[in-house]
Amino acid sequence: MRLDKMLANMGLGSRKDVRQKIKKGFVSINGKVIKNQGQHIDADKDLVMFNGEQINYREFIYIMLNKPDGVISATEDDYHSTVVDLLPDEYLHFEPFPVGRLDLDTVGLLLLTNDGKLAHELTAPKKEIEKVYYAHVEGEVNEGHIEQFSRGVRLEDGFVTKPADLTILKSDSVSEIELSIREGKFHQVKRMFQAINCEVIYLQRIKMGELSLDPDLLEGKCRELNEEEMKYCLSLKK
């Protein structure tokens, strides 16, 4: 990799900015000052110092966000705050994007990354990655609905969903449930309950594949994936 590209990719300035810094002697490789902006380096082996600080290069970033209500799952929007707006500035030069979408009023687990291959593995319909939701549902959900969901639910447009696993945590005028699905049609969870004459009034995604929402992560906060979570993500790319 070219030295100027590496430094620019790490958010240390534009390609033009870092070239100027290199020419002025701000950069050393393995203890030797380098003024050749096109110098090729091995990011895994070479020790690169920029203005006295060691640069640990990485290509990809993987961030777990507990998405709050009222924030759109996009990188930019003219009317709403986006999930990218919630990230610390230190992550922005990686240009992360949300993996899949949560509705504006849906909260919970959302992964942001700049790794397009992983995003594909997690969202491609044929991969059938499990997504688990916790919801408050206006209307009494009963055992018969468990069986109905296990066969697939016919939505208002005639589409029949794939079998889904419904767990009733509380059955009342406002029921509490968990629902596991392996597809992601538009507003699917809400539409599935509309099909049984119920209305979702609170929806939270708590799991995606083997990634579970960190219970200590407050709404609107984020963190990088830990070692175990990274092992799962990297296994999907093999």
| Largest beta-sheet characterization | 9 strands, mixed
pLDDT below 50 for ≥5 consecutive residues: which ranges? none
Question: Structural class, judged by helices and strands?
Answer: alpha+beta
Count of folded domains: 3
- Please report the first level of CATH classification, the CATH class of the largest domain: Alpha Beta
Portion of residues within helices: 10-25%
Described by the principal axes of the CA atoms, the overall outline is elongated
Walk me through this protein's architecture.
The protein has seven helices and 13 strands. With 238 residues, it is an alpha+beta fold. The chain folds into three domains: 3-55, RNA-binding S4 domain (Structural Genomics Hypothetical 15.5 Kd Protein In mrcA-pckA Intergenic Region, Chain A); 62-125 and 211-236, Alpha-Beta Plaits; 130-208, Alpha-L RNA-binding motif (Alpha-Beta Plaits, 2-Layer Sandwich), CATH 3.30.70. The strands form two sheets. Strands 5, 6, 7, 8, 9, 10, 11, 12 and 13 form a nine-stranded mixed sheet that branches.
